[in-house]
């Protein structure tokens, strides 16, 4: 019996490189054909056939209209974005395939963490491939690309360029994961990588042990306490994200977790004064935490 998309939609293990995918046609519908490569990053939205359309209008024209209404009709922007994402994926994948750790162009501490995340026999929750790849991408950009060739450094130049156009005062890099993929785990892995390197290489400007995590609300803020190394449910130990020998280094991390409302300007009306004092107190606590050696 042949496998079809609807009876067997999942082709890859969440723990391995996604080496194949179901082909989709121009309308985002499955063709029942399996392609033996990773699906490239691109906008792919299945669009149901409209009940009414202009006379002679094709599915492709209808899809174009949908993208235009969503503000996604700039072909040059879409092409540049996808080209960048797919190119950096290819670079990270090629780097991942290098067998000798001494050729990875990263610190010994980073080598140890990468080997742990990729090969450790986890007794609890094993990181998904997408989680490891997200951290690998950050590591590649921070440690590998700066010491690479012209092509590698071009990625950094591109990131600096687009950040300069958007907000020259704040350098930002986004790692996008699907809902439920485990972004908290990725944050913990990033904090561990940076902190351990910063503690063991205090003279390096490439690493830090100070982190500010900004959440969309108080509920999420409270959930992220697992990022604190001394929390009873800390991910670093509970989920075995860090080798035991490296756990003491994490105690030197300075992690501030707050919600974005703390940055909003507020008018101190009589009924809001208590809330203002609470927010001001949180900022003072964060400042004190980061000032401590």
From TrEMBL:
The keyword Hydrolase applies. Residues 151-267 form the Helicase/UvrB N-terminal domain. Keywords: ATP-binding, Helicase, Hydrolase, Nucleotide-binding. Residues 57-69 have a biased composition (Polar residues). The keyword Hydrolase applies. InterPro entries: Helicase/UvrB_N, P-loop_NTPase. One of its GO terms (molecular function) is helicase activity. It holds the Pfam family ResIII. SUPFAM superfamilies: P-loop containing nucleoside triphosphate hydrolases (SSF52540). Residues 37-69 are annotated as: Disordered. This is DEAD/DEAH box helicase family protein.
């Amino acid at each position: 019996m042949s496998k079809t998309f609807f009876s067997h939609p999942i082709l890859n293990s969440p723990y391995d490189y996604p080496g194949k995918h179901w082909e989709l046609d121009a309308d985002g519908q499955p063709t029942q054909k399996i392609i033996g490569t990773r699906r490239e990053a691109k906008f792919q939205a299945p669009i149901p056939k409209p009940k009414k359309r202009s006379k002679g209008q094709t599915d492709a024209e209808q899809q174009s209209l949908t993208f235009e209404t969503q503000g996604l009709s700039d072909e040059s922007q879409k092409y540049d974005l996808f080209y960048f994402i797919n190119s950096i994926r290819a670079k990270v994948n090629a780097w991942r395939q290098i067998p000798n750790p001494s050729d990875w162009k990263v610190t010994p501490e980073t080598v140890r963490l990468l080997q742990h995340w990729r090969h450790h026999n986890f007794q609890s929750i094993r990181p998904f491939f997408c989680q490891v790849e997200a951290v690998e991408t950050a590591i590649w950009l921070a440690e590998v690309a700066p010491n690479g060739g012209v092509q590698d450094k071009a990625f950094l130049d591109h990131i600096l360029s687009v950040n300069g156009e958007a907000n020259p005062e704040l350098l930002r890099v986004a790692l996008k994961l699907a809902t439920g993929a485990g972004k908290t785990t990725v944050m913990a892995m990033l904090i561990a990588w940076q902190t351990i390197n910063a503690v063991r290489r205090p003279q390096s400007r490439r690493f830090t042990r100070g982190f500010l995590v900004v959440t969309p609300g108080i509920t999420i803020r409270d959930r992220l306490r697992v990022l604190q190394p001394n929390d009873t449910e800390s991910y670093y130990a509970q989920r075995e994200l860090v080798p035991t020998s490296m756990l003491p280094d994490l105690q030197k991390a300075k992690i501030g977790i707050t919600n974005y409302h703390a940055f909003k300007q507020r008018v101190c009306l009589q009924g809001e004064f208590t809330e203002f004092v609470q927010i001001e107190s949180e900022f003072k606590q964060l400042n004190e935490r980061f000032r401590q050696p």
